[in-house]
Amino acid sequence: MSDFTVREYAFISIAYEGCPESSLGHAYIPEKAFEHLCELSASFSKHGAKVFELAGRRKLKLDQYVGVIETPCGTRIEILPKHMELNGTSDQEIILEERKLLQKMLSVCLHLPYREVGAASLNRFKNQPLHEWIISQFLASFERLVQRGLRFDYNRVQEEQKFLRGQLQHVKYMRQPPAKKHIFPIEHDVYEVNRAENRLIRTALEIVCKKTKNASNWKLAQELRLMTSEIPRSQKIQQDFRQWQSGRLLAFYEEIKPWTELILGEYMPVSTSGDWRGMSLLFPMEKLFEHFVAYHLRRNLPEYKVKTQHATEHICEHRQSKIFKLKPDIFIDRSQANVKNIVMDTKWKLIDQNDRAGRYGLKDSDIQQMFAYSHYYLEHKSEVILVYPYRKGKFDHPLDDFLFRDTMVAKLRVVPFNLDKPQDFKII
Predict the structure, then answer these.
(1) Strand partners, 417
(2) In the chain, pLDDT over 90 holds for what percent of residues?
(3) Which residues touch 344 (CB under 8 Å, ≥6 apart)?
(4) What residue ranges of the chain are covered by domains with CATH 3.40.1350?
(5) In this predicted structure, what is the pLDDT of residue 238?
(6) Above 60 in pLDDT, residue 364?
(7) Domain range 301-424, its CATH number among 3.10.620, 3.40.1350, 3.30.300, 3.30.980
(8) Strand (E) positions, 309-377?
(9) Mean per-residue pLDDT, 218-244
(10) Cα–Cα dist 208/218, whole Å
(11) Do the beta carbons of residue 96 and residue 130 sit within 8 Å?
(12) How far is CA 428 from the centre of its chain?
C-alpha cells in the first residue's frame, strides 16, 4: 500500500521509470490507481461534482475537494487545503500545519464538543494523516464509551426449548406432532448488547482494524475488539443509522456518532453505490470555509443571531410561484438590537490586495450576487460583506469599501479571514 500527500489543485500522473519524486504539487501513482481515479472522475462529473479534471491523457488535476481517497489496489491519496505559502517552507512543515487546519475545520463542521478538539488533542494528532486522525478520535471515543458502559436493549427472540420461558406460541405448539410435545415454541425478550448503535460502532471498529497503520491505533483497536466481541456487525448500515437513538440514556453515544459516520458513511461528493470506495472521505473546501467562518462569528458575536444558508428572498415570480431563491452563505440578524442586518458570502479563493489593475482578482459574478443580496435582503440600507482567506502580504487587511451606485448607504466590504487566528475575526 502506497500513501501520497498532495494539496488542492495538485496534479496526479501515472508513475513511470525515472519519473520525478512525488511532491505536494504533483503525485506519481500506480497505473491501476490512476485508472480508478479516472473512473471516479467520470462518475462525479455525471452528478455535477468537479473533483478531478483531465489535464492530458496521463494527468489529472484536483479541484477544491480535500480529504482522502483509497483505491482498490491500496493506494491512498491525502488531499490537504492549499493554505500556506511555500516561501521556502519545507514540505513536512506545510503538511503538519495544513493537517492541523483541516482537523480544526472538520471538527467544527461535524459539530463535535469543543473540549474534545482542543489544542492538546490537535497537537497530539496533527502529524497523522487525516484517516489516522479520524481513527484515533473514533478509538478514543469508543474507549470512553466502554468505560462508561455500553447500552443494552431488549430484543424479541423466537425459539424452541424444552422448558417454558416467556410466552408460549400456542398455535405452533398445537400443530406439532406428538413426538415433539416436549418441545415448546416460545417467544421472549433477551437483554443484550445487540442494538443499532453498538452494531454500527462494532462495524466501524472492524474497518479500523484493517485500515490503520499506526501502531498505537492498531493496539487499541485490537483491545476494544476483544472487549466487544459479543456485538454483531451491522448488516444494514443505512437502516441502523436511521435507528440510532438520542436522549438522556444515550448521551454518551453522541460523541462517537460523527466519527462512526465518517468511517462508515464514506463522505463522497456523490453517491457511487456499489462501487469500491475504501475509506474515502472528500469534503468541498468552500463549504468547510463557510461553516468555519460562521462558527467563529457565532462565538465572536454572541449578541446577534448568525444564520447559514438563509433563503427567504427570491428574484422572480413565475405562474404565481416564487423561483430563483437568493441564498447568502451567512445572514447576521441584528433586528433585536434595532440595528441593520448584514449579509455575508464566503469565497475559498485567493485575491491580491496589490493587484488593483486586475480588480484584486474579484469576479463580476460575485459582485453582482452581493448587489442582489443588498437589494432584496437589506433594501440597500446596510452593508454586504465578502470574506476571503487571509494571505500575509497578499490579503492581510480589508479592501477599501465599494459603494453601490444610486444608493444612499449601501456598500460592499471585502475582508480577510485569518484561519490561524479565527478568534480575532470581528466584522462589526
Answers:
(1) 389
(2) 38
(3) 293, 328, 329, 330, 331, 332, 384, 385, 386, 387, 427
(4) 301-424
(5) 87
(6) yes
(7) 3.40.1350
(8) 313-318, 321-326, 330-333, 342-346
(9) 91
(10) 8
(11) no
(12) 29
